[in-house]
């Protein structure tokens, strides 16, 4: 049980996690556990028989009273007690896992978010949605006709591309010419709406952990502005590595006349 659950938990904590992918992973996990219910106990019995093992902590066999039995045949209860005990405990664990998965992922909000992602990805494949389908997405934008039209136009722009997540589509839109991007203003709003939904809390938890480490390292009171800037630099190291240090030095020196006279003019 724990192996598949841990694998799914790791996949849900990725930076590229999406609502559609999360729901698909949960469906695969539930199907896997339902199949395991029928096979794991049979495998355990076969393994125990092959290695001459006995069931641990076998409880006392409770036979059915004769007055409640309609036959004089001997009741075969030799293996029923232990099997019923462990099967009951295993079923209880599986039911608990299924109920927790339903509580977390079987929600109206998750279904709505998954439909939004599906409409975007389907439009890139030419599967055009009309305004009625768009209105069912519960969008804050009211111009459903414009959104449906732009989704149809998006299919012609991305016909040679393959997108698996909204992140991929967002990177593609960001690389377009600004004038071309202006044609898909409502689509960009829908992409932003999908990307701002925190499907995984792992990134947020890591950010708060980094903030606690920064406060411990500073050991002093700093302004909120400076703490925010340092937290951004600490968390988004990939963006920091792409900065040109000479440009940063030049901007720092040109901020005040005193710095220009002290450090000189940096080119």
Total number of helices: 14
Q: What's the shape?
A: flat
Q: In percent, how much strand structure appears in the residues? A: under 5%
In this structure, how is the largest beta sheet organized?
A: none
| Domain tally | 3
Write a structural description.
With 267 residues, the protein is mainly α. It has 3 domains: 2-60 and 77-106; 112-195, no CATH class; 236-267, no CATH class. It has 14 helices and no strands. The protein has helices at 2-12, 19-50, 80-105, 108-124, 131-135, 144-157, 166-174, 178-181, 185-195, 202-218, 224-235, 237-241, 245-253, 257-263. The protein starts with a helix and ends with a helix.
List the helices and strands and how they pair.
Layout: H1 2-12, H2 19-50, H3 80-105, H4 108-124, H5 131-135, H6 144-157, H7 166-174, H8 178-181, H9 185-195, H10 202-218, H11 224-235, H12 237-241, H13 245-253, H14 257-263
Q: Brief overview, please?
A:
It is built from 14 helices and no strands.
Features:
267 residues; mainly alpha; 3 domains; 14 helices; 67% helix; flat; IFN-induced_PKR_regulator; HATC_C_dom
